[in-house]
Amino acid sequence: METGSIRLLFVIYIVYLLLKITFGYVWTMLEGSLALGALGYALSLWIPRKGQCFWNQDGPMLKLRTWICYFHLWLNPFETDKLARPSLDGATLEEMGILPSKHELKLEQTRPHESLDQGYEDSVEFWARNEDGSILAIKVGLRADRRAEAWFSWKEGAGGQIYELAQGTSYKNVETSSPNSYKAGGLNLTVLEPFRRWRIIFNGILRRADGTLFHCKLNAIWAAIDRPIQNKQEGDPWILAQAAAALKLDTVSSIVSLRQRVLSGIDQYGSVRGIMSISNESDETVKEVEIQVGGLKTKDYAPYSVKQRVTLQGSTETGFGFSITVQSMEGITITTGHLLIPGTTVVHIDEFEEPDVRYLQAALQRDDFEPKSMFIRFKADARWFNVGITFIPNPFVQNQNGSTLVHAMDITFNCVRGRGMAVFHSPISDVASDEPNNESVVPLLVPNPIDINLQEIPVIATLRSDICGHTSICGGKGASLGLMLQGDPASWGENVHVPDGLCVTTEGWRAQLHENPRWKDKIQDIAACLVQEQFDEKVLSQLQVHCDELHELIKNGRVTENVTSAICQGLKSIFGDDWTSGRRFAVRSSALGEDSEDLSAAGQNDTVLGCRGRDAIEKALLQCWGSLYSFQSIQYRRQNSQPIETPMGVVIQEMVEADAAGVMFSRDPTTGNPSHIVITANYGLGESVVSSISEPDTIRVSYHPWEKDLSNQFKVHGIDIGSKHSKIVMVQEGETCESSVSEAESKIACLKTEIVLKLARLAIKIEDRFGGPRDIEFAVKGDNIFLLQSRPITSLLTWTDYELLHEFDCGALSRSDVLTKANVGEVLPGALTVLTSSILTKVMDLVIQNSQSSSMGSKMSYSPYLMRFTLISHQQVFFNYLDGCLPTIVEPKKNIGHKALDVSVFGHEVTTQRYVDMAIDRRGILTKMENFKMGLSLGKNLLKSMLHKTFPSLGSYEFWPALVNISEDMTPMEAFVEFQKVLLGPMPAATKNHIDVSQNSTLFQLILFMTLTDNSSEWTMDTYSDATSLLVCDDVEVESAGVPKDLRSLSQAIAQNAHAKDFVDCSDTQDAEKWMRSNEDPQIGVAFEQILSKFHCRCLREFELNVQPWGEDCTPLVRTIKAMVEQNLEAKVVKNVSAHTPKKSLDQKLDDLSQKLSPKARRVLKFIVPYANGSQASREKCKAVLIRHVHETRKASRQLARILRQKGFLPNESLIFHLTLYEIQDLVATRSPGLIQKAIRREKLFPLWNENQFPEINEGPPIPIQPRSTSPEANREVVDRIKGTPACRGKYVGTARVVVKLTDAKLIQKGDILVTVSTDIGWSPYFPLLGGVVTELGGLISHGAVVAREYGLPCIVGAQGATKAFQSGNQLEIDASVGVISKLTEQGSTSTT
Hints:
Layout: H1 3-23, H2 29-50, H3 52-55, H4 60-75, H5 93-96, H6 102-108, E1 120-129, E2 135-143, E3 147-155, E4 162-165, E5 171-173, E6 181-184, E7 187-193, E8 197-208, E9 213-224, E10 229-230, H7 231-234, H8 237-247, H9 252-262, E11 266-280, E12 286-303, E13 309-316, E14 321-329, E15 332-341, E16 345-348, E17 351-352, H10 358-365, E18 373-380, E19 383-391, E20 397-398, E21 404-413, E22 416-425, H11 431-434, E23 460-462, H12 471-485, E24 496-497, E25 501-504, H13 506-514, H14 517-530, H15 537-555, H16 561-575, E26 585-591, E27 607-611, H17 613-627, H18 631-639, E28 648-654, E29 660-665, E30 676-683, H19 687-690, E31 697-703, E32 714-720, E33 726-730, E34 736-740, H20 743-746, H21 753-770, E35 774-781, E36 784-792, H22 801-806, E37 818-820, H23 824-827, H24 834-854, E38 870-873, E39 876-880, H25 881-885, H26 896-905, H27 913-923, H28 928-948, H29 960-963, H30 972-979, H31 981-984, H32 987-1012, H33 1021-1030, H34 1042-1055, H35 1060-1064, H36 1069-1077, H37 1082-1094, H38 1115-1129, H39 1146-1151, H40 1159-1206, H41 1221-1230, ...
Parallel strand pairs: 24-36, 43-44, 44-45, 45-46
Antiparallel strand pairs: 1-2, 1-12, 2-3, 3-4, 3-5, 4-8, 6-7, 7-8, 8-9, 9-11, 10-11, 11-12, 13-14, 13-22, 14-15, 15-16, 17-18, 18-19, 19-21, 20-21, 21-22, 23-25, 25-28, 26-27, 26-28, 29-30, 29-35, 30-31, 31-32, 33-34, 35-36, 37-39, 37-40, 38-39, 41-48, 42-46, 43-47, 43-49, 47-48
Helix pairs in contact: 1-2, 2-4, 4-8, 8-9, 14-15, 15-17, 24-32, 26-32, 30-40, 32-40, 34-37, 34-38, 36-38
């Protein structure tokens, strides 16, 4: 700033003071801050430039320098690449955090190679440990010279040995990486959803400390625990200001730039869960280890020749995590860090006690430093934390040039045990000089750039041309051959050749299609089949007819003259005039997308061998083109979301009259073991191997690159001699035929050892050049090897069943999390499809997060990067007990409020003092001010509820047609954009409404319980009985109770009809439905239609998108009506006296209570009970509104699926439910076949996932209960009595009907006592048949409890183990006055009291 500007600031400041003094105004805090700020800004600009004489002084001036530097850092925040803060009020799904933004994806992806600066490294690292001492360290760093640094180290348990990469952490040639993947050294780290989930794959050789070699396979998922921390953008300005002051920086630019010099990278806490398979290379023993470790992921772009730096990373048994970095710069040390508070957020460390970091400062200044133990103390979240650290001797990771050492460490964190790692970095000068044979090789999958547009693409391209390296022009096979022929042919080695030839480009196909309009018409007929409303067997038969007709048309056609002439001229230019008579050619299909990592298309399109002369090549060319539209090829593309109308390249390559040929894999195609090269070969042409005509020889070669002696790197490991009873050979006429192999030849290997070893070395060279494992076709003639094809091995990245099951599991830094199935097990039972989880469950969680984070006094932050409350594990939903039920603690001891909440939600007491202590450990005890703020928030919500009595329903069914209008003329992307309006409409508001009302309903019940008990912690069964009697909603109608009421009325009307017997005798539900609709009594049909209209969106598992509600499939309702009518006709009606008890006034209910009330308690109850009952009804009403929105989402999903199926993006519409919202977006943009295959696998596995059952309370990762045996005796427990919580008074004796699945509910008979896990509205039709209800899950506000109270059915909830203790047919007595279910030893008469 110029001197004149500074003077002007001083003048303004003096004038300002004079005005204040003159007019006698009292200064406000804001005005004073502005004035001091203006003065400070002026001084901060003037002192460094004009006051150098005292600027560099220490003492008091150091403090002033610090404040001035802080002021500049505060005024100049680093905004580059800063992530936007999501909000539930956002205008798009990205702004809400439901979908990742493009900016988030950019920050997580690899940098383009051309943007990498020399000396910089684009890296991603995973550091993780767990309580038992297991450690996992992973890193891939990509560099500008196409090299990479790869780490993979694993230690199993505290006493386990360390496994490291057999080749150390040397700098290897980088594998070609897609934008979403980091690949090197056997590692493949892929972004699944930015800042939310990564996939970690390792397949390589590890060396144990004792030198033993192991083949290791790891398939794991990393899941975020909290938001990403952008260190540059979020670094604490005060700590940086202290460093700037110590460095005596005297310009604004140098002060501000210090942030970029000191801080870098994006840190994020998360956990890794997967399966590691470890097999001993010597004895081939295999063991599998389940890995669950938590820690830090770091994504960075920074110089790899770093300054001296130490990073301490740790986590505790209670879920805290921290990262502290101490680095040396120009003679000073700078300490920064952040702390993860479980269930709350990530905060930056504000202050370190100076003596604490001296130990680490010494580490930075001594090369021979041996870490032992230390103590560090820091302040964050307004609390002090004490960390004791003991370093484990011997580094866990040590790269070869010694620049990085990693030590494991044991920690105590505020007296809680934990584990961690210390990473010591030392500066290095030139890493390239430290490693031999570091030739920078450009991967072949990076084709040479071409300066050509689509109008200039020729109809043919020689295999050596740059054009041929592009898959969009020559297809997959042609591009692969073209890339192998580019550059120096001798680079493959002596006597190694790639047969020459040319490729008919996709432009050649387009030219041919342009001259054949009948072909176009037939292609349109095929496309028309695929867009039919119903893709059934009839349409499939039509499709096959059209494919066969087009196939024949193409095969019998003629190649256009310009294409034929170009082929002839091209072959002549390559082979001379004798190409027509002296040479034979292989004509191979080369479709777009073929031979890629995602799609092999092996055998889908034709190859013709032994073509000689122009006519034979033309005929073969037409056959290849025709195969593109064969039925099998069309089906393959349809089933993998590939375009049906697609061009094709065709390779014309000189054939080799081989002595032997086959296929080799640069690593084991089954296990992916990189130390095993597999070669399969037979005599003659390779067609016999590819088409499995004859059993080939299988030869395994061991590859040990870590051996210094080159002669020991490749050794023949084993040979399995195949039968080789026949071979394929060429005959003089130019064709091929099958020929027998002599007995003597069949008993020996068809390849000599020297050729085998040469092939093995060649396989590794090809893998290096292509940047990944390869499947290579070859031929051998004498001592010459011919490379015929090279494609990726597609089987190595296949998703395992374990990965698919745990792909969306919530992250966990420790095993201290407590998850419950209560409540969510009732509303969201069983497994959910991933689309449901990614939409509805996500919205629910974000609404709760928003509510909690916006509450006054709450420390929780809104973070869409993880689920905080509705957590996923094993594809099922759990509720976060600690953060959801104990979000705030007002006193250190468990109190009556906890007990009342437990009874309302769980039906029994759950909270223990240990759980309270765990919650205090996470968030501390509320201060008086925080407690006051929280009380204001709760009071505001309760007041709002009281003013409305029942909350108004937000949104209605009529709003939806205007919001979502997906039409058939839309493109897939337009349809997806339209589909997003579902979530931008009333859905979040309806969800918020339902959750708010549910919370208030729980609060009213808390007040009711506390009033009944007079704040006493001693509760009797009379307490529960009195509470349930007061919660009977006599004055308001409960939505879910309307289902059984209406069904009972309808069944009584049918039973009184003269033809009721005909209804009961209907053979199936469709006939029964038809009888009701067409009955001579119109009231029956009207009543049935009214039920369907009123409850058309309701059903079992009604929050699941992939179900049919009653309005679409009324079978459950009709089946129940039939059973009720039949029971009425047989006069086996069990009269439940309590069901017909006259309604009582509130005064009468209070008079009838078992406990004597004080006048004050009576007044409070008279005031609060109507609101408690009203909130129950309001909760069900709001839920019904939300379910209507869920159904509209369901219908919109189906509309989107229909568009995607008709456009060829989905083979089956049902797969839409097995893709997440983000995956659908990706599919629409990329047509990824990998996503389709994953969705197909999920659909197949879903029934198994849905079978899993879990305990009500789960500490740490949930573990499924062992499946129930098919034998009833195997599941029985010798228990005669089970206790639970009374939800509705009464005593009843009847027959037990144990029903775990709703599909078995048809077995329920009139008067049965239902014993089940939980109920939702899908069970409502059966309530009129019941005599009593027992559930294992649920509280006093659960569905079963509410509906049972409406019908006066004796009901007990929270009866743990009831489904195993009893079996169908047992005579039970349910006494809901004392909460006991008893098994009678003798036949008891059916009765009720």
